[in-house]
């Protein structure tokens, strides 16, 4: 069993964990629909894209998984994949994502904001009044716009990679199947020749 497979089994949400999630409880019957838990060539890339979009844009642990699961309903995305992809934004990657979002936002909006104010608010457990003041500062629009751009681009790239990975995987399976059929056909014809 590979390291990625072990990580997946340890961290991927299960139907039971989703059933007990308080954010999903009102729509649990829809989220637990079996078709949303199957791994198909359409649902997996959609799940990858949706998980990256929600995981990068929201950056709020717990709400990311619930948001990805709820948004998977209308787009028919694979829920475990969408929920697992939200883990790409975690405490180790969040500072980089925030820095990149401010940089992208500044570049695209022509601003000169920095992310240090946001990080100070997080570290100091700021109150509502301080957060509202930050929201109306120059940094907030740059960061939010940058987050939106990065999450949409990441979702598109993730979708394309998942589609490519799925195609490669399926072509390898078909190739292996043809080889098996070819070997069975040859051994069958050799047995027929030997019998004659």
Describe the structure.
The chain is elongated and about 75 Å long. The protein has helices spanning 3-11, 15-19, 28-31, 43-58, 63-75, 79-85, 94-109, 116-123, 128-135, 139-195. Helix 4 (43-58) runs parallel beside helix 6 and helix 7 packs across helix 10. It is an all-alpha fold. The protein is built from ten helices and no strands. The protein has one domain (3-113, 142-195). 73% of the residues lie in helices and 0% in strands.
How far apart lie the N and C ends?
47 Å
- How many structural domains in the coordinates? 1
Helix content: over 70%
Order of helices and strands: HHHHHHHHHH
Q: Which whole number gives the mean pLDDT?
A: 83
Radius of gyration over alpha carbons?
23 Å
Q: Which consecutive residue ranges, at least 5 long each, have pLDDT under 50?
A: 190-196
Number of strands: 0
Largest sheet: none
- What sort of overall outline do the alpha carbons produce when their principal axes are compared? elongated
Strand % is: under 5%
Provide a count of the helices: 10
Pairing-aware structural class of the strands and helices? mainly alpha
